[in-house]
Amino acid sequence: MKDRRPPNPIKTSTREFIREARRARDYSLFDFLHGYVYARWPYLYIGIGTGEHRIARTLSPVFNRIRGWTGIFQPRNGDKKPNPVSAPGFDEDRIAFADTYHGKVVPLASARKLVTVNEDIDLPDLEKVIPYKRARDIILHNPDHIAALECPCRSSRERPCLPLDVCLIVGEPFTSFVVEHHPAKARVISQAEAVEILEAENRRGHVHHAFFKDAMLGRFYAICNCCSCCCGAMQAHRSGTPMLASSGYVSQVDPELCCGCSDCTQHCQFGAMSVVGSSATVDQEICMGCGVCVELCPNEAVSLIRDSTRGEPLEIFDLMEKAAA
């Protein structure tokens, strides 16, 4: 006998997102709707947020009234440079946009580890690592489920950096949702392919960010490979909205090894490197410890050193070991 029940109009990945949302703590109906819109229409969402989409001017007043949406490029602190130490905001009594959607800078070695986890993990409330009021959990279900998504930030630009498919969606229910709803712009990849994308982007001088969002179940969901010319979060950070947290490291130059070739200054996405005389120098106030200069220095004259004032690094295996102790 044939099953006469009508087909379920809700996609399988959406049902999984709903089930996971019901289990998430402090996750409201508004958060779910916000998360659904963000994941279902990321190109529209980011295009409006960056002001690049043609209807941004029309809809911006609407979004500006929604809790948590202040406009990505709206300066938060005038001409003051964002401080990577106090990145989570300036008003301690309210939740700002930077607290609801933000990234943690991770050097290449740390990014590799994030995409090679082979077991489910539950690491909540990582305030020492992710210094924001919201969205600071690392809860990975099926972490080997990874998708490469065409970057919404790059896609919104008139002349984007290439390639486009450099956003890595990690774990469930996020990977299945993105692939099912964006089959033309997302594809499932292996962990080895994810590492290859990270390494290729690193050679291009792009920065790895582990992204967190309150509407995405309040946790880590993606690693983006970012350039300052396309990335909305980096441009917001530069404009004074502190959406990025330091890696916990800063760069250091050995003047004995440095030849003053300027390779580091040309690739520093945060503008922290300059050449003075015959050697490069680091503005450690704005250095975010991404490690791009380390990887691209031909003389191995640059290294990352820990700076305890910048918070803890996102070293996933170390965090897992501490949680198990």
Category by helix and strand content: alpha+beta
Total domains = 2
Number of strands: 12
Distance between the termini: 55 Å
| Radius of gyration, CA atoms, in whole angstroms | 20 Å
- Tell me the series of helices and strands, N- to C-terminal: HHHHHEHEEHEHEHEEHEEHEEHEH
Shape: globular
In percent, how much strand structure appears in the residues?
15-25%
List low-pLDDT spans: 67-80, 84-92
Work out the helicity level. Answer: 25-40%
Mean pLDDT: 88
- Oligomer description: single chain
Query: Count of helices?
Result: 13
The main β sheet shows up as: 8 strands, mixed
In brief:
The chain is α+β, with helices and mostly antiparallel strands and 325 residues long.
Task: Offer a few descriptive terms.
32% helix, alpha+beta, two-stranded antiparallel ribbon, eight-stranded mixed sheet, 13 helices, 325 residues, single chain, 2 domains, Alpha-Beta Plaits, globular, 20% strand
Give me the secondary-structure topology.
Elements (H helix, E strand, L loop, with lengths): L11 H12 L5 H12 L1 H9 L5 H9 L32 H4 E5 L2 H7 L6 E3 L14 E12 L2 H4 L11 E6 L1 H8 L4 E4 L1 H13 L3 E7 L5 E8 L5 H8 L4 E2 L3 E5 L9 H5 L5 E4 L2 E4 L9 H5 L5 E5 L9 H9 L1
Helix pairs in contact: 1-8, 3-4
Describe this structure in words.
The protein is an alpha+beta fold. The protein has 2 domains: 22-67 and 92-245 and 313-324, no CATH class; 249-306, 2-Layer Sandwich (Alpha-Beta Plaits), CATH 3.30.70.20. It is 32% helix and 20% strand. It has 13 helices and 12 strands. Strands 1, 2, 3, 4, 5, 6, 7 and 8 form an 8-stranded mixed sheet that branches. A two-stranded antiparallel ribbon has the order 9-12. Strand 10 and strand 11 form a beta hairpin. Helix 1 (12-23) packs antiparallel against helix 8 and helix 3 crosses helix 4 (56-64). The relative contact order is 0.17. Mean pLDDT is 88; it is low at 67-80 and 84-92.
